[in-house]
């Protein structure tokens, strides 16, 4: 039904329309949004605060994950095409196998072994993580904040052209193959695969993992860490081409299947001692503001064994109430017996050939102690990824870190 516009209102209406089309002189960063159809409606009512289109960004995540997009989404036509249908069918089979062989076992094990740890772990710190939102949210599903650090570029929300690329689905499948089969990323091959379809960093895979772990993606914003460790907003230009002294990042707002809100932050940073000097240790300063931590480490290439990763190692030891790691995390010798209670799980074998020099005789002694035998670990994790070859160490601080 149409209502005539009184002539006396036309001048005011023209002024309002002109104001809406006037270029803004103030740059205000907005949360990153997914590609959406143009809005053809013209509003004549007083301007209201914009409501974030949470469905649009989640639809991108679902599309990448091979899961249904919502009705009315502008991605529905793409999801109806045979290429996506075949990808979704194959992805569902792969994820069904993964959940049966890993997720269900991790959940059953952690419900018993990590029950008290989970209850006391609102904030998870995951250094050397890459885009691995998958394992950390499976291991600690009830936490509120997850802070991930890796060398991989942050990345941006995929544009429509990227989603239409015929090479997208093979690239995603190749990138996920190692993490679904071995529990860790092959970083170099992942970077090549994603670059081939112009997916420019960790974010696309993090969106995919969020959808596949039954999280609703409600918002994404680009951020950076200032030299004093403060979190600030950033724009996509800085994210794509950060300077050598910049620590770019991304922040995701998620909601779990049970309705729990979560914040996930990923920062692209080299946290070796020397490189930390270039950024004035902004990443470590920020982590120190988060309160007591639970630190999770897996498949970390044994970097915190080395002298030139002492700063991040010291941060973990100083600010964590709990550390859950495989043998590629902090070397056992750094956990002082007076400060930490150690519980061993699984089987300790020599590191794979690539990391043979990181063998720890102390670990062999601990795992062969008949008076305190290791507890069972019913799933594979880390570089020795087979179920009966893997290990985890849970370190509990004797005296909790002060708030």
From TrEMBL:
Keywords from the named record: Signal
Superkingdom assignment: Bacteria
Signal peptide: 1-18
Protein name as catalogued: Uncharacterized protein
